[in-house]
Amino acid sequence: MDFPELAAQTRRFTSGAPRAVTVAGDGARVLFLRSTGPRDPADALWRLDVVTATEHLVAAPGVLLDDAATVEGIAGYATDPAARVAAFALAGRLFRADLVDGGVVEVPAPGPVADPRPDPTGTRIAYVTDGTLRVVGPDGDDTLLAGEDNGTRWGVAEQVAAADFGRDRGYWWAPDGRSILAARVDDSRLARWHRHDPAHPDEPPRTYVHPQAGGPNAQVSLHLLDLDGGWVDVHWDRETYPYLVSVHWVEGGPLITVLRRLQQHGLVLAVDPRTGETQVHAELADPRWVEPVAGTPVHLPDGRVLVGGELAHDGYDARCLFADGTLLTPPSLYVRRVVGRLSGGGGAPDLLVEASDGEPSQQHLFRVRTTVGAGGIEIRRLTPEPGWHVGAVGGTTVVVGAGSLDRAGTRWTVWHDDVEVTEIRSLAASAPSAPRPVLERVTDRRLPAAVLYPRSHVAGRRLPVLVDVNGAPGRQEVRAERSAWLERQWWADAGFAVVTVDNRGTPGVAPSFEKAVHRRLADVMLTDQVEGLTTLAGKHPDLDLARVAIRGFSFGGWLAGLALLRRPDLFRCGIAGTPVTDWTLHDTAYSERYLGLPADATEVYAHHSLVELAQEPVVVPDDARPLLLIHGLADRHVVPAHTLRLSAALLSTGRPHSVLPLPATGSAAADGTTGRLLRLELDFVRRSL
Q: Residue 494 — left, alpha, or beta (φ > 0 → left; ψ -120 to 50 → alpha)?
């Protein structure tokens, strides 16, 4: 079986692989999701006992419900801190699993269940249904904690929070399990659009709310809800700081991070759970935009507050961690995420941190001391092998997920007290190739870049070039893990030299590297892509710059379209999948973070619009390069009318292009659309070059 079909049937070689790994607070148990094999998309919940190094099936979708209703399996789960109880939704129904003694029971619920979470004592379960927040007790007593019949939603993350700030939840249990801090979302002011699924014409259309740049945002407030009916509002200046970026409540009082609309200033606020009053603990400021560190802010056991920030003075250019203003990480370390606390040593617990140290294509796990002694900052790298590493932690148990260029997939190993205990089995299929991209840094800006050749390539044979691009802020493509290159190897084996460049704006290098794109995404990113490609061609003489195609999806689709329209002298054809055609139609937080408010930056938005660019007359006929526009009907950010508007602009100036719509079901991998799409793309590029 060829790669496109195999990748589609195996969810890109992830079916059967462990994911969603969680470690109990005492380190005794490890929880994870895994399906039964490479062609089974239905994930089950598993438990691994650290002492015996044995795996136990906790909940299998096919056992709890019939297979036809549970083809997607268990999408996610939540546990109490000690991981004694897990809650999960399956086909909209609520289930509770005993992780100590075993056993799974269905808990009756009045509606389709989303985001169920046990309280810290493992006694009750809260969940969201139809915009309301409910709590069910051990006796089955189900109580409406918050809900209104006016369209307002409780306990959920609004679109901007989930898509642009990484906050995918909307309620948090108090450490004692007696109250919940819940978000109330009112998006009645937002524009709505409706999508019909042609595969299911009898079903009602799905409705999406869409905050467009310069327009209104959802109104979000926080409230402390006691289980006995008490109610306290959380107070902060929501007009000045409308974005609720993060909430953490593990010990002490809740900590929240809020940002101004343009995200150049933010506050870390400590909330008094008795009164709802807030006190400023730290200020976050940047003339471009504030970029909080995932996993912060959070209380340390000694009462200090851990905050992530940037060090940009005295020659430093780093993303660091601070505890009440004390620097905990060296400026050489680019901190990406705080995984959690690691016990041991009898003193203050250490932090487990995901970070890069000088090489952005690699990510490692580091142990960071939370106290700074006479010897200064203390960190220790825990992952010696090169590659891309992620982690989970509880007590003195660390689970390490390691991806590398030397093997397929992610290898999950369990460590207890610095001793490897076992490896979590993977049942995923092996990819048919072992890509070996050449990773390097190019231009005087040291852009991370890679070249991938056909496996049968013979030096001296000139190859057409495919630039596979994303380039989005927060997105990194040049990574030292094999999974990032499997599809690109298929393109290479079709006869191309595949080039990937991480332009300025992407993470992993330094804050100044990321934020150089402020208000000038188009110019900076396209310059880096062009200079990165031409520099690579100087080092790799087999790259034929007379035959260059560019391909990208989502943000990369916009960048691919931009490259084709602005630099037809270099790019001969392009594929733009679900591109952002006009930034005034994109999300408020995302567009305004990088381009400002449309009312204050009309020329900036016009300069970044593919529609405006496509409407410019073609002066030299040969500069009208062919473009394949792919529109995913399941995409919430780019509605069909946006793509058709770009098509009309291209048509008005005689620019050759095709429009390829994708199914609205969102099940492309399951129905084989992914494989067919890749072959259509390949055919287009071959014809165009």
A: alpha
Strands of the sheet with 350-356, listed across from one edge: 334-342, 350-356, 364-368, 379-381
Cα distance between residue 169 and residue 47, in whole Å: 24
pLDDT tens, position by position, 417-472:
999 999 999 999 999 999 999 999 999 999 999 999 999 999 999 999 999 999 99
Q: Which residues contact 409 (CB under 8 A, 6 or more apart)?
A: 13, 14, 17, 403, 426, 428, 430, 482, 483
At 151, the pLDDT band (50, 70, 90 cuts) reads confident
Label residue 529 exposed, middle or buried (CB < 10 Å: 0-12, 13-18, 19+).
Answer: buried
Lowest mean pLDDT among 185-199, 333-347, 589-603, 644-658: 185-199
Distance CA 337, CA 319 (A): 10
Tokens of 447: 């852009």
In angstroms, the Cα distances linking 202 to 72, 147, 205 are 22, 29, 9
The alpha-helical segments, DSSP class H, found in 156-243 are 159-164
Tokens encoding 289: 């935009």
Phi and psi (nearest 5°) for 470? -130, -70
pLDDT of residue 671: 44
CA distance 290 to 302: 27
Nearest-angstrom CA–CA distance, 393 and 672: 37
The whole-number average pLDDT for the span 485-495 is 97
Three-class SS string for 7-66? HHHCCCCCCCCCEEEEECCCCCEEEEEECCCCCCCCEEEEEEECCCCEEEEEECHHHHCC
Rounded to two decimals, the pTM is 0.94
